[in-house]
Every structure is written in structure tokens, then in C-alpha cells.
Amino acid sequence: MATLVLLRHGESVWNAENLFTGWVDVDLSAKGESEATRGGDLLLDADITPDVVHTSLLKRAIRTANIALDVADLLWIPVRRSWRLNERHYGALQGKNKAQTRDEYGEDQFMVWRRSYDTPPPPIKDDDPLSQVNDLRYASLPSELIPRTECLADVVDRLLPYWYDAIVPDLANGGTVMVTAHGNSLRALVKHLDGVSDEDIVGLNIPTGIPLVYELDDDFAPLKRGGEYLDPAAAKAAIEAVKNQGANKNKNQGANKKK
Ligand SMILES: O=C(O)[C@@H](CO)OP(=O)(O)O
After folding, report:
1. Does any domain span residue 92?
2. Which CATH number belongs to the domain containing residue 122 in this structure?
3. How many of the other CB atoms lie within 10 Å of CB of 248?
4. Mutate to test the pocket of ligand 1, among 17, 18, 20, 208 (most ligand atoms within 8 A of CB)
5. Does the annotation mark 54 as catalytic?
6. Which one of 8, 69, 112, 252 is least enclosed by Cβ atoms within 10 Å?
């Protein structure tokens, strides 16, 4: 048996401003730092001690892992990072305000881009300042592997090789593995773990900064479908807030805001 801890990064500056983020490397907000600290406290309270941590290549996930592990005095554990844990690439929507996008294109199109399983947003152009094609951290990747946009099905496809090749071997050692990543890369992982259908994954949201713990059997399948949030009440409220993004704040901010 092994334990898998999934932790979505704390609130980012662009989460707070209600902007589509994707592969843009924005930092945590002050609230996001507090959420990461609370995530560490929750791990301590539950007596969960990760043996290894996996993160994406984006600083909001890296800093969340560091803050949470620091609280638990576990900054020293081995760490592995991969672009395969990155947030879903949001294509040409990166940097756009969610509420404005919904107003401009309508609720149906907005939700198709945001949550449909297999329809990606329009691709970002390579010369767009918010494109990642010239980002140093992806320099060793063949250009065709760097996304210009992704739907959740694309994220499942690029995440699963990392699950099988990097995370499962750590779980097979019988330890506790923490994966600190993003709303949509964790939705992709949960879809795989819980066998969520393409239809039902549309309604699944992951809150920031609250550890979600899965006990896994010898085949790395969950003993309990859906796992357990370490603070279920806070998770429930935060899941509703993620669901409602686009419907509320910052309607007057400029769309296509640059970093
Ligand atoms: O903007 C993003 O990259 C993601 C996560 O913050 O947003 P959403 O929840 O709308 O997919």
C-alpha cells in the first residue's frame, strides 16, 4: 500500500485577478502563500510525511511545495520536476480575463473552452509574448512537444507517461508521494485514478492549497474513490469558488493583460 498526496498550488496572482493562466509562470499571491502554509499545517496535523515530492516546472507549484514542506520541516526530501505536471496550456486565452471572456463569447463557449474534455481553446501564436516556445526551461523539448493549446484529453496524454515512469516507481517503494501541481493537471490525474468518465470530469474542480490524500492498493488504484481532503469543509467551499470563476469579479479589467 502507498499514499499519494495531491496538492494544488495556492492562489496565484492571476487566480486573484481572474485571468486564464495556463503555462504563464505567475507567482503566488499573499493569500496563496498562506494557503500553502496551511497545506503544510494540515499535513503535519494528519501526521503525513512525504518521502518525495514531484512538481511542475512552474513557480506557483514549486513555491507551494517548498512552503508546505518547510512548515513540516521536510524541505530536504528528494524533489523531481516535470513539464508533464504543468497546468493545461490555455492557448490564446492565456492572460485573458475570465469574466470578460464569458461576456464576449457567451457562457456555452466559455465553458466548452474551460471545462470540455476534448475541445481546446484557439492556439497561441509562437510570436505572442505569452507563448512558451522560447522559454529556456523547455529548451530540451522538441518544439512539437511544447503545446500551443491543450484540452484536458491532451493533458491526460502527456501526464500519464510521467505517472507510470516517475510517480508509480516512487509509490512502488511503499512510500508517501506528494504531487504539487495545478487545477487541470490534477484533474487529469484524478480522472485516471478514479476512472472518471469524459462527461463527469467536466464537473470536477480542485481547490487551491488543500491536500487531497489517496491510499492506493498494490495496483496503484484508490482504496477510496475520490480520496480524502484533509479539510473537507474548506475544500467544499473552495471547489464552489473555482466552479464560479468567470461569473463574478474583475469584469472591468483589461483582457489580454500582459505579465
Ligand atoms: O487559468 C488557469 O490556468 C486555470 C487554473 O487556474 O483556470 P481554470 O480553473 O479556469 O481552468
Report:
1. yes
2. 3.40.50.1240
3. 11
4. 20
5. no
6. 252
Q: Which long-range contacts (CB under 8 A, 24 or more apart) does 145-148 make?
A: 147/23, 147/89, 147/91, 148/89, 148/91, 148/123, 148/124
Residues found in the chain: 259
206 CA from centroid of ligand 1 (Å): 10
| Residue position matching grid coordinates 498526496 | 5
Instruction: Please indicate, yes or no, if residue 32 is contained in any of the structural domains.
Output: yes
Which is the catalytic residue, given 9, 35, 150, 182?
9
- Least Cα distance to 104 among 120, 116, 92 occurs for 92
Pocket of ligand 1 (CB under 6 A): 15, 20-22, 87, 90, 114, 183-184, 242, 245
Q: Confirm whether 249 is domain-assigned.
A: no
Atom of ligand 1 nearest to the CA of 98: 10
- What atom in ligand 1 is closest to the CA of residue 184? 11
**11 in a known ligand binding site:** yes
Active site residue 87: yes
Which SS3 state, helix, strand or coil, does residue 37 take?
Answer: helix
Q: What is the domain range of residue 49?
A: 2-243
- Number of domains the chain contains: 1
Identify the active-site residue in 33, 35, 54, 87: 87
Per-residue pLDDT of the chain (259 residues; tens, 9 = 90+): 899 999 999 999 999 999 999 999 999 999 999 999 999 999 999 999 999 999 999 999 999 999 999 999 999 999 999 999 999 999 999 999 999 999 999 999 999 999 999 999 999 999 999 999 999 999 999 999 999 999 999 999 999 999 999 999 999 988 899 999 999 999 999 999 999 999 999 999 999 999 999 999 999 999 999 999 999 999 999 898 888 887 754 443 333 333 3
Annotated binding residue 12: yes
